[in-house]
Amino acid sequence: MTHARGERSALCDLFDRLGPDAPTLCAGWTTYDLAAHLVLRERRPDALPGIALRPLARHTTSVQEGLKARHPYPELVGLVRKPGGVYGLLPFLDEAVNTLELFVHHEDVRRAQPSWEPRELLEDFERLMWKRVSAGGRLMLRRSPVGVVLHRLGGGVALGGPQIGPKVEVTGKAGELLLFCFGRQSHARVELRGDPDAIERLRGARLGL
Description:
globular; DinB/YfiT-like; CHP03085; 209 residues; Maleyloyr_isom; alpha+beta; 2 domains
């Protein structure tokens, strides 16, 4: 089983267990909303631009609400469980494109629940995530107000944010660094070192793709 498939299956099992009204780390979204978002992302390419482009967000929101209106929660979870659209036709794309997305959203659900704890991830999964973080860190951290030095526990350094001015060192496992760079700063188990004001600005920054 690929990492994407594993995260997809585990996320859907969690969806089933928690039901449609559980909180997530995605502001204002329940598990029902997140399931609809994942279905939209894979099966409604017409609505994809609005995820990133604010002027088109109204159409995306309308499509997402329409999916909820047409599909009971168990049906939406069933659609998430099986790769849709081009990812169903070309399975290798699921691993290439969806692994990080599914990992982050799995943690969005897990870490919004009481008494959560970080998972112990397989070493090859950690290596894959670090490869993606080190390659894409500058993109994910492009809106950081301060320079960022990512230190992976076990080895590895990556840079992001402005090249001049104060810098904050962020240390943790690859999965935690990924969550931090995806904008989940408050729920990533990392250590921050640097000027207190710079750290506070980085904690409140809008990071991610």
